[in-house]
Write a structure and sequence with these properties.
heterodimer, A: alpha/beta, Glutaconate Coenzyme A-transferase, ten-stranded mixed β-sheet, three-stranded antiparallel β-sheet, 11 helices, 13 strands, 20% strand, globular, B: alpha/beta, eight-stranded mixed β-sheet, 8 helices, 14 strands
Chain lengths: 312, 283
């Protein structure tokens, strides 16, 4: 069993981000705050920093700004990943300061390609010990990572790469809407949210909107994560800023561009964390601090879909 | 996201070009777009390839089938996506796939006809490094890593490479190979060194073309070469062969029938500047 506690027995899982993080995440845990550009829960990352949680193994295909902030705040001892950068802009500077020749301190890196990371989650979410993929020959990726192994296909004799199942201690999954039980609906880019939900030992669902279960039942094809794998539900509007939520708000590209300069210099980086992470009590205070114009600028235009007939 | 390196804002110093009416990046975009045919199923990356795909769709390839690594399938973005997971990719797409589906059903299953790559280092066989400069365990520069580049290089039927040429990027051997080319060579020891794609059982066709800021290379079997190797087949308007040779870290082969590529047409340039990238995000 991958699950540590029975998420089925609790009827109302709604709590604050502070409660969800303090009940779910301990120093030394492995954590996956998912999102592929879309639905990245910065609110959860900031709360982890505020709570001073240390020695995390940070897992994600695309560790971006919020993982870099966790690294700069000294919360991370190891990262498991496949692409580490500021998408479309540049580098993750806290990571680079801890992974290059000139670095004073290092974090441990375990590296795959995107497909390799997806495959680890597929195994983890399917109750299998490993996952096969046709990849990695003619590269140095497997040379640099002893966990990438190979098997001979029992049917064709072909050599196939394998990666082991992964079971993060904690997953944080941001979504458009959820009920108080943790049934979560997601639309737009889905990243590896489903696989992460089923692979992880504890799951925190963070929603822009909390809705009645009847709203979800009216459109069940859109429910990506079922309540039986969810332990905590947090209502956190704008919780993904500067990432985005389809239908709610756009990506704050200006922030990502400005981040390059903020993060290059350790002093301006620490000043940012002091002001916008440690300097605010929670997400509400962060939103207040960012100011209304940012959120007016980013609010999504309406683009409704027609809906479908579920009758029989 | 591996091709994000290609999106770094270039220093547009005309790089030997006498024609000041267009930049080397614009030339790269125009030439890359020409590699795309209508109805091609293309795995789009961000940066110049993204602009090239959208240029092709707006001109000679209206039914180009664009798939983005982030999950947008049959995308027709209204604005130029600023990241590979831009919300504008989702709006009006034909389908949204999970990443498991993208890598398994689309890429590994052999549906991708054209993939784009770029990187920090490339060798004559099209092996690409997007992982580290220097020693892996103790790197001089830590680069982003593979992203989807490795599997694109393994599975796409043909791979187009978009990279500016310099002795630092076009190297004799890569420090680390992230994405396989036509024959595996690397500074880092590996069991498979010296093997070609067929021996390695790589299903995709491998790299076919490199579009640089000074000209175009194709991967060809030439007398004496150990695998399909880069050969300069086209040179851009205003560039001399000696300029190109000085930018390449090995003795680059030159095709006997080297073509000179004229400057882009004014209407193509205005399509890029006025409609596709008016904010000059990439150019």
């Amino acid at each position: 069993m991958r699950r540590e506690q029975n998420a089925k027995t609790r009827s109302d899982k709604l709590c604050s981000m502070n409660e969800a993080i303090s009940e779910s995440v301990s120093s030394g845990n492995s954590i996956l705050i998912d999102g592929f550009t879309h639905l990245i829960c910065f609110a959860a990352g900031h709360e982890i920093i505020r709570q001073g949680i240390k020695d995390l193994t940070a897992i994600r295909l695309t560790p971006d700004l919020v993982y870099d902030q966790l690294i700069e705040a000294d919360c991370v001892k190891k990262m498991i990943f496949s692409w580490a950068g500021n998408p479309g802009v540049g580098s993750l500077h806290a990571l680079r300061r801890r992974s290059e020749k000139a670095s004073v301190s290092r974090i441990e890196l375990e590296e795959y390609s995107h497909f390799g990371m997806v495959a680890r989650l597929l195994a983890g979410s399917s109750g299998l010990p490993f996952w096969p993929l046709k990849n990695y020959r003619g590269t140095n990726i497997a040379d640099a990572n002893p966990l990438i192994k190979k098997i001979e296909c029992p049917y064709t004799g072909e050599e196939i790469a394998t990666v082991p199942a992964i079971h993060p201690d904690v997953a944080v999954l941001h979504c458009q809407r959820a009920d108080r039980l943790g049934n979560a609906q997601v639309w737009g880019l889905m990243g590896t949210q489903k696989e992460t939900a089923f692979a992880s030992k504890r799951v925190i669902v963070v929603a822009e909107e909390i809705v009645d279960t009847s709203v979800l039942r009216a459109d069940p094809n859109r429910t990506l994560i079922p309540s039986i794998v969810v332990d905590h539900v947090v209502h956190e509007p704008w919780g993904a800023h500067p990432s985005y939520v389809q239908g709610f708000y756009d990506r704050d590209n200006d922030f990502y561009v400005a981040w390059e300069d903020i993060s290059k210099n350790p002093e301006t980086y620490q000043a940012y964390l002091s002001e916008f992470v440690h300097g605010v009590a929670d997400r509400k205070a962060y939103i207040q601090k960012m100011g209304a114009p940012t959120f007016t600028r980013l609010t999504a235009k309406a683009r409704m879909s027609a809906g479908v007939n579920y009758g029989y | 996201m591996a091709i994000d390196q290609a999106s770094e804002k270039p220093e547009e110093k005309s790089s030997g070009m006498s024609n000041e009416t267009h930049t080397p990046s614009e030339m790269m975009v125009v030439r890359a777009a020409e590699e795309l045919h209508d109805h091609d199923v293309v795995f789009v990356g961000i940066g110049l390839p993204n602009l090239a795909c959208n240029l092709a769709r707006a001109s000679h390839a209206p039914d180009l089938f664009m798939i983005y690594e982030s999950g947008a399938v049959g995308a027709i973005p209204e604005r130029l996506p600023v990241s590979i997971g831009d919300p504008a990719l989702v709006t009006d797409s034909l389908s949204i796939a999970s990443q498991a589906d993208i890598f398994q059903n689309y890429l590994q299953n052999g549906l991708i006809e054209v993939g784009f790559l770029g990187g920090a280092q490339i060798d004559r066989y099209g092996n690409i490094n997007t992982t580290v400069i220097g020693d892996y365990e103790n790197p001089k520069v830590r680069l982003p890593g593979s992203g989807g580049a490795c599997e694109i290089a393994v599975h796409a039927k043909r791979v187009l490479i978009v990279m500016r040429m310099s002795p630092k990027t076009f190297v004799e051997k890569c420090d680390f190979v992230t994405s396989p080319g036509s024959r595996f060579e690397s500074k880092r020891p590996s069991l498979d060194l010296g093997k070609n794609r067929e021996e390695l059982g790589l299903p995709g066709g491998g790299p076919t073309t490199v579009i640089t800021d000074v000209g175009v290379c194709e991967f060809l079997n030439t007398p004496g070469s150990l695998g399909k190797e880069m050969v300069l087949t086209e040179i851009f308007d205003g560039v001399e062969v000696s300029d190109v040779l000085a930018k390449c870290g090995w003795e680059l082969q030159i095709a006997p029938n080297l073509k000179k590529i004229p400057a882009p047409k004014a209407e193509t340039l205005s399509l890029i500047r006025d409609r596709l990238d008016p904010q000059k995000l990439f150019l």
